[in-house]
């Protein structure tokens, strides 16, 4: 008997792919083209699978639309790439319960059920990896799992939604209205027809929940993170932001302080020459802050079939190696009190029907709430019937500012709700 041959055979991990769409196809391509990685693609599963078959897939791969057949098969690792919660959750649970490790790129699933699924994986001696679920091809989750796990992280902030970043950087560079930038993003395939999840922060807060789980070891229910929309951002806000040395980006941030997790998602002013300020188009950037190593930055393609597939295959390689080394272990996860009550300077943009006494009235309300004005910006040349101007405030807590904003919302000279953005320095 050739014992050397047998050992090599045993070390090859059998891999089944469920979901042959944008990412699944790119993963299958890598696994089919490069068979020297100790991974053998054995099954491809998709609904109505006949129309999906590709000549470049090796002949010994079984094409099927029967998920149960895959879950019963002799495979070591299942890749879930169908997306959404149903039936992805049942598939992932079924795979883990039958002792198969799982690699997924599914942010909804991990943001909602990540801690339970990690526990399930550990109790069955297998692994669950989800490196592609945040920032696509940018290896930030693997970095949190390995390269930074020796630090004690207390903060994570990121540009996590390429659609928002594309739209904001287009308004910034071309000074076009929000609606035009959205249409352009949709025409180029960077935004879906219904882009609400992206624009209103739902997508980014699911990703922030996963980063908080992986980097801050804290369980976050995505809906408990306050999300503000980018829809009211106007080209004029970039003019005023520039006067303050800033631009505007959708930022997702989580800071762990004395057992409370301060977290929110939404448009913020950021210095124009800062890492966030320099991120253009649909790129993603994640910054981490640690007690020992300080700040780290991860920048790259947050989406796209090929970059995301690289993250999936990297997870596969990691799982294959760790299956040989040891059974899965769940790292401990704790719950923190949640808060969106950051203390920051603020940018308040008003659109008013001009008349004497407006600034005095606003200053009176701010003063009554013990809020200090830092600057007042008003560009010349605007129509007095729709005059934009900006007040910036010295740092204060969101909870102190809110009652003042409610009072201002009652004023009859405002023709749009006041846009209120944190200024990150
Ligand atoms: N695309 C990216 O850039 C990117 C980046 C990061 C993470 N991700 C994540 O990666 C995952 C896959 O994304 P994707 O862009 O590849 O999606 P996709 O192109 O829509 O592919 C999904 C595939 O799964 C199949 N499918 C859906 N429901 C199924 C079911 N119940 N049973 C069997 N097959 C089913 C679909 O078949 P049909 O052809 O019949 O619809 C399709 O082939 C998602 O979780 C996504 O959030 C994607």
Question: What are the defining features of this structure?
Answer:
alpha/beta, binds NADP nicotinamide-adenine-dinucleotide phosphate, single chain, 425 residues, 14 helices, 6-stranded parallel β-sheet, 7-stranded mixed β-sheet
Descriptive report:
It is a single chain. This protein has 14 helices and 19 strands. The longest helix has 21 residues, at 305-325. Strands 7, 9, 10, 11, 12, 13 and 15 form a seven-stranded mixed sheet that branches. Mean pLDDT is 94; it is low at 1-6. Helix 2 (22-33) packs across helix 12, helix 5 runs parallel beside helix 10 and helix 13 packs antiparallel against helix 14. It has helices spanning 3-11, 22-33, 67-72, 88-97, 107-123, 140-147, 162-174, 178-187, 196-199, 202-215, 235-243, 305-325, 358-368, 398-409, and strands at 13-18, 39-45, 62-64, 77-80, 101-104, 128-129, 153-159, 218-219, 226-227, 246-257, 260-271, 283-290, 294-301, 334-335, 337-339, 343-352, 373-377, 387-397, 419-422. The protein is elongated, with a radius of gyration of 25 Å. The protein is an alpha/beta fold and 425 residues long. It binds NADP nicotinamide-adenine-dinucleotide phosphate. NADP nicotinamide-adenine-dinucleotide phosphate binds at residues 19-24, 46-48, 81-83, 87, 105-107, 132, 136, 303-304, 308. The site of NADP nicotinamide-adenine-dinucleotide phosphate has 21 residues, from helix 2.
């Amino acid at each position: 008997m050739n014992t050397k041959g047998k050992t090599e055979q045993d070390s090859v991990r059998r891999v089944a792919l469920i979901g042959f769409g944008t990412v699944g196809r790119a993963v299958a391509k890598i696994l089919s083209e490069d068979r020297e990685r100790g991974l053998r693609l054995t099954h491809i599963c998709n609904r109505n699978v006949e129309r999906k078959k590709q000549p470049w897939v090796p002949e010994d791969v079984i094409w099927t639309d029967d998920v149960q057949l895959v879950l019963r098969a002799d495979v070591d690792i299942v890749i879930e790439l169908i997306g959404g919660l149903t039936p992805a959750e049942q598939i992932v649970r079924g795979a883990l319960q039958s002792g198969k490790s799982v690699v997924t790129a599914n942010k909804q699933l991990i943001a909602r059920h990540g801690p339970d699924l990690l526990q399930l994986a550990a109790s069955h001696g297998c692994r669950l990896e989800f490196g592609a679920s945040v920032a696509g091809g940018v290896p930030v989750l693997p970095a949190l799992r390995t390269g930074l796990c020796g630090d004690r992280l207390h903060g994570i902030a990121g540009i996590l939604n390429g659609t928002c970043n594309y739209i904001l950087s287009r308004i910034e560079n071309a000074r076009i209205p929000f609606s035009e930038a959205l249409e352009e993003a949709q025409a180029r395939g960077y935004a879906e027809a219904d882009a609400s999840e992206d624009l209103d922060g739902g997508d980014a807060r699911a990703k922030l929940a996963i980063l908080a789980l992986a980097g801050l070891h804290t369980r976050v229910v995505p809906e408990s993170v306050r999300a503000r929309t980018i829809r009211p951002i106007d080209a004029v806000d970039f003019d005023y932001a520039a006067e303050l040395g800033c631009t505007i980006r959708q930022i997702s941030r989580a800071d762990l302080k004395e057992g409370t997790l301060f977290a929110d998602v939404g448009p913020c002013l950021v210095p124009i020459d800062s890492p966030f300020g320099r991120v253009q188009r649909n790129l993603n950037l994640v910054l981490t802050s640690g007690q020992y190593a300080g700040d780290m930055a991860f920048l790259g393609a947050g989406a796209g079939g090929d970059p995301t597939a690289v993250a999936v295959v990297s997870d596969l390689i990691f799982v294959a190696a760790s299956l040989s080394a040891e059974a899965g272990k769940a790292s401990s996860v704790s719950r923190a009190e949640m808060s969106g009550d950051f203390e920051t300077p603020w940018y308040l943009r008003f659109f008013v029907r001009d008349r004497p006494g407006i600034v005095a009235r606003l200053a009176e309300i701010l003063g009554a709430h013990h809020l200090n004005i830092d600057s007042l910006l008003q560009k010349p040349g605007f129509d007095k019937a729709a005059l934009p101007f900006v007040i910036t405030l010295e740092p204060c807590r969101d909870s102190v500012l809110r009652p003042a904003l409610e009072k201002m919302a009652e004023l009859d000279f405002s023709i749009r709700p006041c846009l209120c953005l944190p200024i990150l320095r």
